Amino acid sequence: MEIGEYISALSNTAALYNKTHALMIWGIDDETHEIRGTEFRPAQTRQGNQSLELFISTQLEPQVQFYFHEVVIEDCTLILLEIHAANASPVKFRGIDYIRIDSHKKKLKDFPDTERELWATLGRKAFESMIALEDIPADFVLRLLNYPAYFDLLSMDLPNDKAGMIDALLADRMIVKNIMGNYNITNLGAILFAHDLSAFPSLERKALRVIQYSDHTRLYAGKERVFKSGYAVGFENCVTYVYDNLPSNEVMGRALRKNIPMYPELAIRESLANALIHQNFFLHGTGVMVEIFSDRVEITNPGTPLIETNRFLDYPPISRNEQLAAFMRRIGVCEERGSGFDKIVHATEVYQLPAPEIMVYENMTRLTLFSPRTFSKMSKADRLRACYLHACLRRVQREYMTNASLRERFAVPSRNSAMISRLLSESCEEGLVKLVDEAETAARSRRYIPYWA
Hints:
This protein is α+β, with helices and mostly antiparallel strands.
């Protein structure tokens, strides 16, 4: 089907030239550009037992939005095919990607220089600047986006008229004006301020999910909630909901019993912020998920880290979603200076919890926070991880790890300092930390730094 090949070619060409979409028109003479009209009616055309649009969409990879429009000019019917530009990778039809060279449709693989240029262009394209919903009148923009929250979070007065509201959203590129005089809502505007992310088909699965289980397994799921509002609008509610549903310990005070949460709120807040901001939005069909077990909390986000996990504490921050991160910093969700992982580690140390664990899989990253566990009940891996992260935290604070500081971190009494000395020796043997002064012989006087310092 040649139309599918043209959709691939025009979608890729639009991306190559940094255009939001391409058009293909039936009913215009190719040579004179005179209006002639056409007998082609896409809504009535079928391919086998499928409609034309359904057939073409099933053959495109990755999926790209396209629409047929029928218009009448001078009593002649014209058909306009509107095609969105390719996003993360070139669009293929039946496994082959095409490109427009001059006025001809060609296979992309036959033009390697153009193919490299297209990949480079797609690699520079930020998710936030892509379009979530297009050609929306101003009134509908204000219905779909929580504009009062935008002004409230930025501590700005709400404008008196619609034009002032639209101008503010335009200035922050939450929306952009299109060639039809209406507005396109960007991914940035939708993911931050949508009343309901399900109104944006490409972002529906990016809503945060929270699942609570009845024990330490996934066999018995209890409550589940999906936060469908944009991240800026719903972040505080997400943090509160997760924190309120965490396991807690009942402590008897002087007069009353009190429930003390097992996890520091700061660690939950920073973990959620990191997962939302640093996820890979180009991975479709998945989003950030929080799973609450009886003995741990797992926070999973799509994508793998841009830096090594063992350097999270000291490495300068790198984000794949710079515009999203910048706006979240403006409203106080995260800070400019770092990833927040140092706060997570410090908070778990204050609560004397096992160190957080980061696991990287093929297309996702999972951070696990563990419930309280004494030193004697921690595994060797738990102890080594805690020792290494303690050394990293002390290093970024311009201090050294010592036997005394590590004993304090684990709440181990001084009479058991030999246990900590053994752990320090094991950490050195594993290549996680090293001595500052190899000549120092007194165990309690030795100072340690991470292996990379």
